[in-house]
Amino acid sequence: xxxxxxxxxxxxxxxxxxxxxxxxxxxxxxxxxxxxxxxxxxxxxxxxxxxxxxxxxxxxxxxxxxxxxxxxxxxxxxxxxxxxxxxxxxxxxxxxxxxxxxxxxxxxxxxxxxxxxxxxxxxxxxxxxxxxxxxxxxxxxxxxxxxxxxxxxxxxxxxxxxxxxxxxxxxxxxxxxxxxxxxxxxxxxxxxxxxxxxxxxxxxxxxxxxxxxxxxxxxxxxxxxxxxxxxxxxxxxxxxxxxxxxxxxxxxxxxxxxxxxxxxxxxxxxxxxxxxxxxxxxxxxxxxxxxxxxxxxxxxxxxxxxxxxxxxxxxxxxxxxxxxxxxxxxxxxxxxxxxxxxxxxxxxxxxxxxxxxxxxxxxxxxxxxxxxxxxxxxxxxxxxxxxxxxxxxxxxxxxxxxxxxxxxxxxxxxxx
Length: 416
What we know:
The chain has 2 domains: 3-142, Trefoil (Acidic Fibroblast Growth Factor, subunit A) (Trefoil); 156-412, Alpha-Beta Barrel (TIM Barrel). It is elongated and about 70 Å long. The protein has helices at residues 186-191, 222-235, 251-259, 264-267, 276-279, 284-290, 311-314, 362-385, 404-412; strands at 7-8, 17-21, 27-30, 41-44, 54-59, 62-67, 73-78, 81-86, 93-98, 103-106, 112-114, 124-125, 127-129, 138-142, 161-164, 196-204, 207-209, 241-248, 294-298, 308-310, 315-317, 343-344, 347-348, 350-355, 391-394. It is α/β, with parallel strands linked by helices and 416 residues long. It has 9 helices and 25 strands.
């Protein structure tokens, strides 16, 4: 949309919001959180802090972007720089141009609030510049994900699935002493309600095995793991399962492993063949009726012909690590070219939220998978993506005791 086509916005969302760059997924952040005149406004990954929460308030025909935690201070201008200023300063008024869900934020004297380049850079200052392209487009998202009632017959992109990280690295199937991520074998994970499996696949000794980091020799084959999944689907006609492959194989190596899975081709859903990009994701009931209840994504391209889709074409996924201490809750895309809120006309990506540490343990999962997870969904990853996750990927998903994870998934499936 050109500048001439832009129309005055209906008021942006009320209450606390975060302002997210459309092309790079970083958010408007007050440098260091300090409330000082001239403090630089920068781009940073969303972290749920008060330094990233603003309130857009109408002031006559224009708007001010107030710091939610101290509304005497606003996003303002210092020539081409974007800085904090007293809201009484004339250089804190803005025009919002509505692009249909996105906004350009214009300085009344000319120029647009924008990122310096569309590639993300933590801590880089924002700018006022004449260009009105992608770098000047913003999402204004509520600081907590709004809740819309779940339809009686939801689409796939409206529901949420419990997902196990490194599902194959479990103690039941021989990963003792090698930093296992799960306790139960694949069959039992599925039986206990897991509906997303993150699996690493390596070519090893003429086969494809489910290894972690490297193959030691006693790992199960990917064919066996996928057969467990297909057998489960055949025995549970209402279930939908997604497999995410961290893929270290060639196209032909993976093709051969998949071809040995009895019934794989009958169950796999191919979104490209189904016209998902043009028509959106099907309803859950449609997948069940078609008996196409297995989705498989690979981190490598070129596998679509046999139903294994390139994840960057169909999903958005946050960077995986909570850090070694579990305190790094910021949320940004694993892939710079696919911001978490990326949308294409008529199509919404499946949003996969990773929530685990560099080094797994049951004790740390007990800490991470409770209120920290629920808060990160609600106040960090959800607002950055503009919606709840479709997959919540965890280590030791059964932790903490008492069912906190199951309760969270159940709650997420009451709204979209």
